[in-house]
Design brief:
Length: about 425
């Protein structure tokens, strides 16, 4: 054989991949179907692995559909030979690394069903499971979920089952990446399958134990952020998703997250809370009774003290503060007045100060400015107490914040600014 198992280290491998003739390559692949000698088969797979390291070789192997059929059949015929199976899966991993046509061929020919058979047979074999995860990752890296959700659902139980079994960072990182990609599809069937397989319970358990399993700070943070992004995506979807999470006990986990000191974690935790609250109208008592709102306001105070004099350049803190403003907005627009008064009267109306401050720091973000104006409208229209709260906002600098917005190019914002200026001038708060 003209390429050895060390061929991938040879500087000439790229030249070989580019210059090998298609007919010769097809002939080599055909050995997988027509040769029985194990040594020749093993060398054949290594030749193809080395050639497929380069994009040119990956494409050439897939140019002839019989080649992919031979490879797929060889996987089936190698189920009882772990070493051969491992290497043919390694080849598939390369063939679908970047080539969409190859990827689609294996996908449409039920490779996930085959993976399930392999997974059952080698349930506790780390090497086989790891290479399976690599192959699945390469298939799913391209987003073509529409119409194929039944196929993608087949790998979800396998991936979730491995979460608390895998101890290698690269592998668990890939699993969480895949689940993150699944959760980001907004496909109801995919999300339902994730929840049905208790993804939320599995990743919470992983989060609690992550420092026991892994010891490098950057690895721990990366895995934690994947967990939070998965929850963020799930809670961004259907309201029923949030009800499942609440029913299955996410609140203690939320409280645990709010004790973290990392800005990235706090930002993503607030995003999850904001999504949960928006999905649970009329159920805000859960967040008050479990002391979550108090903790959020305390976080807001800490952020305010850091950014009040210099709020430019710290995107994580600004985004965290933005989530806090949205949370205040959700509470103010809830129909239960009990929570309205709780949030407004908190610590001498800290929340009012947050709203006024946000008019300054988010002056270029028209969406959040509109939310803040809606909050202020809600506050000053409360019966008999509007003047008290409006005066408090004036003491926090509402008038100067409004002046800064007069240069805004958005007509709706300018109209709001003029409305509040008129109230100030005419001393008319009703």
């Amino acid at each position: 054989m003209f390429i050895s198992q060390k061929g991938k280290e040879d500087e000439n491998i790229k030249i070989i991949s580019q210059q090998i003739e298609q007919n010769l390559l097809n002939k080599i692949v055909s050995y997988l179907a027509f040769i029985n000698d194990k040594k020749i088969l093993f060398e054949t797979i290594w030749i193809l692995i080395n050639i497929s390291y380069e994009n040119e070789g990956e494409t050439k192997i897939g140019n002839e559909k019989n080649n992919l059929k031979y490879i797929l059949n060889f996987i089936v015929n190698s189920l009882n030979d772990k070493i051969m199976l491992y290497h043919i899966l390694w080849l598939v991993r390369h063939l679908i690394s970047k080539n969409l046509s190859n990827k689609l061929y294996f996908f449409q020919n039920n490779i996930f069903d085959l993976f399930q058979i392999i997974s059952d047979k080698y349930e506790f074999d780390d090497e086989i499971n790891n290479i399976l995860i690599y192959v699945i990752c390469n298939i799913c890296r391209t987003t073509f979920f529409d119409g194929y959700d039944k196929e993608f659902k087949k790998v979800i139980p396998f991936l979730i089952k491995k979460i608390n079994l895998v101890k290698e960072f690269k592998t668990i990182n890939m699993i969480l990446f895949l689940i993150y990609k699944f959760s980001d599809t907004k496909n109801i069937n995919i999300i339902d399958e994730l929840l049905r397989n208790n993804i939320h319970k599995k990743i919470i358990e992983l989060y609690y134990n992550i420092k026991i399993i892994f010891h490098k700070d950057e690895e721990i943070l990366q895995l934690k952020l994947y967990v939070l992004k998965i929850f963020g995506n799930i809670t961004s979807g259907e309201d029923d998703n949030s009800y499942v999470l609440i029913k299955d006990g996410i609140i203690p986990f939320i409280n645990y997250l709010l004790k973290e000191n990392d800005d990235f974690i706090i930002k993503n935790s607030l995003w999850i809370i904001r999504n949960l609250m928006a999905s649970l109208p009329g159920n805000l008592y859960i967040f008050f009774e479990n002391n979550i709102i108090n903790k959020i306001i305390e976080i807001g105070i800490n952020i305010y003290e850091i950014i009040s004099n210099n709020y430019k350049g710290n995107e994580n803190l600004l985004n965290s503060f933005k989530h806090i403003i949205y949370i205040i907005y959700i509470i103010l627009n809830d129909q239960v007045n009990e929570y309205f008064y709780k949030i407004i009267d908190y610590k001498s109306s800290i929340c009012l100060m947050f709203l006024v401050f946000s008019l300054r720091i988010f002056e270029n973000n028209l969406d959040i400015i509109q939310f803040i104006f809606e909050c202020i409208h809600t506050i000053i229209l409360v019966d008999d107490i509007n003047q008290k709260y409006f005066n408090l906002m004036l003491s926090f600098g509402l008038e100067s914040a409004l002046d800064n917005l007069m240069n805004c190019e958005n007509d709706k914002i300018i109209e709001e600014v003029k409305y509040f200026h008129n109230k100030i001038i005419n001393n008319n708060y009703n």
